[in-house]
Every structure is written in C-alpha cells, then in structure tokens.
Amino acid sequence: MHTYKLYKDRERLLQLLADAGIPPRILQAMATVPREHFLPPALQHFAYENTALPIGWGQTISQPLTVAKMTALLEPAPSLKVLEIGTGSGYQAAILAALGMEVYSVERQRRLYETAVERFRRLELAIHCAYRDGTMGWPAYAPYDRILLTAATEFPHPDLLGQLGPGGLCVFPLHNENRQYLARLRRNDDGSFSPIERFDPCEFVPLRPSIA
Ligand code: SAH
To answer: Is 59 in the pocket of ligand 1 (CB under 6 A)?
Structure first.
C-alpha cells in the first residue's frame, strides 16, 4: 500500500471535515484511528475518500463525514458509557474509544462480529462486543450515558431507550417515508424523553431483527 498517498488523502479528508464544522477534538480522534485497518485489503486505497464502502455481507462502513456528525451529536466525553448498535467494521466504535469513552457494541452478523473482535484485539482497543440482535439493546451493562444506532429505524425500541440513563442521549438514523435523517432523543432527569430532534439527511442500512 502507498503510505504517502494515504497520508495525503487523510490530510485532505480531515480538512473537508474541518470545513464542514466538525469540532477539533473529533477531528483529532479521527486523525488517530487508521480507517484503512477497518477495510478489506482490496479497498484500503479508498480509506480516506469521503464515502461509505462495502465491508461484506451487504453491509457498509459509514461515510467519514457521517461518522463525524453522529459522533458530534452524541456529545462525547471521556469515560461516558456508550452502547453502539451495529458494530460493522468497528470503525465508529474505535472513534468513540479514541475519545475516551467506554464502548459497548453489538452486531447481528456473525462474520462481521468476529472480524471486528479480531481487529480490536490487534489494534489493542478495549471495546466490549457482543454477537446479538441489538434491537432491544444489551441490558447486562445498562444504563448507558449514550446510545448510538448505526442502522436505520423508524423509532428505537422502548426496551432499548429504557437502557439510557438520565440526561442521556440516543442518536440514530431515523427512517421516515423513504428518507433518512440523523435524529436525537434526550432523556430527562425525571426519566421522560424530550421531543425528537432532526438533523442532516443520511443513508444507512436498515436495522434488522434477529441474528445472522
Ligand atoms: N458502525 C459501523 C457501520 C455499520 S453498518 C461501522 O463503523 O462500520 C450497520 C451494521 O448494523 C451492520 O453491520 C449490520 O449487520 C448491523 N445491524 C443491523 N441490524 C442490527 C441489529 N438488530 N442488531 C445488531 N446489529 C445490527
């Protein structure tokens, strides 16, 4: 692989993200996580293009700008506990870990789960993973300060939202009448939820029930 090309591409991508208003500490986290390590060998050359890329089994690693926007909406902070639904390549989870968060991530597709676990081991990332259907979360480690869905849904399941602690945020791709938007729910200190906030359009694979 041409290291110099990747280096130049990465500089350009980080500038694109900065121009889009992504905060510096998120840029810094994205600068430290080598996206090429989360891609199949044949696609590593495209690691720093601002595009989603196939990772097998019909799934994709998200577009870097979308990862950055979702991360910003999540209002990350060190040592907050975050649950991600849809580990996929593991790239988004690695960004959250680079921000000092305590990351729990679940994946329904066995081969993607196994590949991500191996990747985290190799990169020495202490991310807690499970092979399970995340529709209803991962109750064993609840409550979480943050919940991030990286697969689209009309609305997160009440059991999943129930695992969000007071003051917590849930960010997800909201699927509504053939369109998708980044969306956010905030849990109030009394346990109720504030009205849904809607942000930029996005494109995610659907959240699917059951494991595969
Ligand atoms: N966050 C990923 C991108 C994920 S693509 C990354 O950074 O690469 C969406 C992922 O969600 C896919 O891997 C898909 O298999 C997974 N997924 C879909 N429905 C799911 C469910 N119910 N539970 C867990 N994972 C799910």
So the answer is: yes
